[in-house]
Design a protein that fits this description.
Elements: E1 25-37, E2 44-57, E3 62-66, H1 73-80, E4 88-93, E5 96-97, H2 103-112, E6 113-116, H3 120-123, H4 130-140, H5 146-159, H6 176-188, E7 194-198, H7 206-223, E8 226-231, H8 234-237, E9 243-248, E10 251-257, H9 258-263, H10 268-275, H11 280-288
Parallel strand pairs: 3-8, 3-9, 6-7, 7-8
Antiparallel strand pairs: 1-2, 1-4, 4-5, 9-10
Helix pairs in contact: 4-5, 4-6, 5-6
Length: 289
């Protein structure tokens, strides 16, 4: 597998109009249930995390997935990243139903779908140096020589804005914003097609949210990346998204272009979300302009 280096921009668009592409991701009627046992009575009960959830993510675009805590957002993300197996339904990724792939084919998909979590401190191995953290995915996928992996990791660390000498530091020696930059470098070193950001900005202060958002937008333009941006805060992601999908009680109740959904929500739950966030008025006006 050839890795696209961080300095390489995407090819210019063709002058003639291309036929519409299939979405990079198509989720069809996904369901996920967990079986638990009560500690005292030992009675078995079932928790439904996803119930008939469907959505699409176009190539090179950002889909914001919003909803309250417990709505199923993170479970859906983990199913997309093949960290959880759904109870039923289908996940199509780049034209393939990933749930029907052979184990070696699923392993290749892991390199094309990467996740960035809310708390990078808990997602990064505290005993490893930054260089080891960024090269680890390349080693797992058996890509390149030791020298090639090192060079590529250093390039990505520089591209995301980590200072010189960062490769020798460990995660706890970085600030919160720098740790998130390190997590981005680790995720993108494999040149994935889909980057899932699971509340990746919510733990940062406003200044870092803005700078990391700009960085992600630049990387998306340069490398034609596709983002799934998961959040419970519509205000945080509304200005970043091309489309917004709303989750409620394990279902995607609405998915539409961001400006349309913000100005004319159709589902009652979406309307309740907007009413609960009066500061969205300025975002709606900007989007509609």
């Amino acid at each position: 597998m050839t890795i696209r280096r961080p300095a390489e921009a995407s090819a210019p668009a063709a002058e003639t109009a291309a036929p519409p592409r299939e979405p990079l991701v198509r989720v069809e009627r996904l369901a996920k249930s967990y079986v638990h046992r009560r500690p005292i009575s030992r009675a078995v009960f079932q928790v439904v995390a996803l119930a008939d959830a469907s959505l699409t993510i176009p190539h090179g675009k950002t889909l914001a997935l919003i909803g309250d805590s417990g709505s199923g957002k993170s479970t859906l993300a983990r199913c997309l990243a093949l960290l959880e197996r759904p109870t039923s339904g289908a996940i199509w990724f780049d034209g393939k139903n990933v749930l029907e792939l052979l184990p070696r084919e699923k392993f290749a998909i892991h390199g094309q779908v990467q996740m960035i979590f809310q708390d990078p401190a808990s997602a990064l191995n505290p005993r490893m140096t930054a260089l080891e953290i960024v090269t680890e995915p390349l080693e797992a996928q058996k890509q390149g020589s030791t020298a090639q992996r090192r060079d590529l990791a250093l390039e990505w660390m520089a591209r995301v804005g980590l200072p010189d000498g960062s490769e020798r530091k460990r995660p706890m020696e970085f600030s919160g914003g720098q740790r998130q930059r390190l997590a981005i470098a680790r995720a993108l070193v494999l040149a994935p097609k889909l980057l899932i950001l699971d509340e990746a900005l919510s733990s940062l202060d406003l200044a870092n949210q803005e700078t990391i958002s700009r960085l992600l937008a630049e990387l998306q333009r340069e490398h034609s990346l596709t983002y799934l941006h998961i959040s419970h805060d519509l205000r945080m992601v509304a200005d970043l998204a091309d489309e917004i999908a709303v989750m409620h009680e394990g279902k995607v109740v609405e998915q539409r272009p961001a400006a349309e959904l913000l100005s004319e929500p159709r589902h009652p739950y979406t309307r309740d979300l907007l009413l609960a966030m009066p500061s969205l008025e300025s975002i709606v006006l900007e989007r509609s302009a």
